[in-house]
Amino acid sequence: MINPFETEERRAFRASLRSFVEAEITPYAAEWDENQECPKHIHEGLGALGCFGFGIGEAYGGLGFDDAFMRASTAEELARCGATGIWAATIIRNTNTGPIEMLASEHLKRRILPEVLSGQEVSCLCVTEPGGGSDVANMQTTARREGDYYKLNGSKTFITGGVEGQYFVVAARTGGPGLGGISLFLVERDFPGFTRTSLEKKMGWWASNTATLYFDDCPVPAENLMGEENHGFIEVMQTFNFERLTLAAGALGMMKTLVEESITWATDRKTFGKPMIAHQVIRHKIADMMARIDMIESYLNQVCWMINESEFPVEQICRLKFSATKALEFCASEAMQILGGAGILRGNPVERIYREAKIFAIGGGSEEIMRDLSVRQMGI
After folding, report:
1. Nearest by Cα to 233 from 155, 150, 153, 171
2. Binning pLDDT at 50, 70 and 90, where does residue 275 land?
C-alpha cells in the first residue's frame, strides 16, 4: 500500500534496511535458526544502519531524533527474513535503551549506550517473573538499600537476550505494594550473586537466547538506581507501548512473507491439471490474507502518525497490537493450508512463522491484557 505519510528520508531508511536483510540475513536465516544463533556481525550491521538509535542523543551514539515510522519499518523489514528469533535477538535493545538514557546517570549512559547502540553488546529489560507474568503490580523481586549498595533478591524469566546480555535493566520492589513501589536498576552480568540459566526448549525464536535470571543478595551500586526510588516503573511505561508498536509491525512483516511464500508455492505447484493459484479456493485465501495485511498496515501508519504528532495513543496501540497478532495467526494458518504437507517441514518460513506467531500474541502484553487496557483507556 501507499503510505500517505511517507517521506524521502523514511523511504531511504527502509530501502537500506531491506537491502541489508535480503543480502545478509534472509539467505542464512534457516541455518542460523537451526543453530540457535544470531552472528555478531548482524548486530553490528544493524547498529551501523541506526536501527537501535531511535530517540537516543547523538552524544551517546544515537540518531538524535525519533520517528515512529522508522521504528515500525525496522521491525517490519527484520521480520520479513522469516526467522523472528533473529528479529528478537537484535531489536530487543530498543525496549531498554530509552529508559537507560532517560533515567541512568550520565556516567553510565556514556559508558554503556555506545556499546549497545553499535551492536557490540546486548542489553535486556527484565520485568517478567516466574510467578507473575503480566501481573507486574505483584512483583516479588526486591531491592534493599544497605549503605552504598542495594541488595537485589529474586528472579526474572523469559528474558530475551538474557544469556548473552551484558547489561540488564531490572525492575525490583523497593517500596510498598503496587506499581508505585517499583524501582529500576542497571545490573551488569559480572555482578556477584547474579546468575542465569538458558531456556532452550522453546517452540520458536530459536535464533534468540532466552534466560531465567537469579539474584541472590546481588549488590548493585546505589548510583545504578535508575530514576527516583519507587517511581522507576511508572516512568518507563511508554517503553512498553513502543514494544507493542514493534510487535505489531513485526507481525505485519511476517504476514507479508507468508503471502509471498504462499503465492510462490501456489504458482509453481500443480493440482488437478493446473497451477494451484488458478483454483478459486486458493485465490480467495490470498485475497483474505491481503485484506488483513492492508487493514493492519493502514492501522499501523495511522498509529505511527499519532505517536509523532500527539500524545502516545495507548488506547489505539493496544487495539493495534491484538488486531495485528490475530491477523498474523489467520495468515499463518491459511499459508499452512496452501502449502499443505510441505508446510510442516522445518526449514521453510511458513513452518517457522506458524510456530512463532503465538509468541507475538503473548509478548509485550497478551491479547487479553491489551483488550482490557484499551477499554480502560476509554474510561470504562
Report:
1. 171
2. very high
284-303 pLDDT, tens digit per residue, is 999 999 999 999 999 999 99
pTM of the predicted model as reported, rounded to 2 decimal places: 0.95
Q: Are 296 and 324 in contact (CB under 8 A)?
A: yes
Question: Domain 8-117 classified CATH 3.40.50.1820?
Answer: no
Those residues whose C-beta lies under 8 Å from the C-beta of residue 71, and which sit 6 or more positions away, are: 54, 94, 242, 245, 246, 249, 304
CA angle 373, 375, 379 (to 5 degrees): 105
Q: What is the pLDDT of residues 352-375, one digit of tens each?
A: 999 999 999 999 889 999 999 999
Secondary structure element (H or E) that encloses residue 117, with its range: helix 106-117
Q: What is the CATH number of domain 237-377?
A: 1.20.140.10
Q: Residue 150 burial by CB count (10 A; 0-12/13-18/19+): exposed, middle or buried?
A: buried
Whether 100 contacts 123, CB under 8 Å:
yes
The segment(s) of the chain belonging to CATH 1.20.140.10 are: 237-377
How far apart (Å, rounded) are the C-alpha atoms in residues 189 and 168? 8
Q: Which residues contact 7 (CB under 8 A, 6 or more apart)?
A: none
Instruction: Report the distance separating Cα 376 and Cα 181, nearest Å.
Output: 22
Element (H, E) at 339: helix 314-339
Residue in 114, 143, 110 with CA at minimum distance from that of residue 221: 143
* CB count in 10 Å sphere of residue 147: 8
pLDDT digits (tens, 9 = 90+) for 2-58: 899 999 999 999 999 999 999 999 999 999 999 999 999 999 999 999 999 999 999
Beta-carbon neighbour count of residue 268 at 10 Å?
Answer: 10
Q: Which CATH number fits domain 123-234: 1.20.950.20, 2.40.110.10, 3.40.50.1000, 3.40.190.10?
A: 2.40.110.10
- Continuous segment of H or E residues that includes residue 193: none
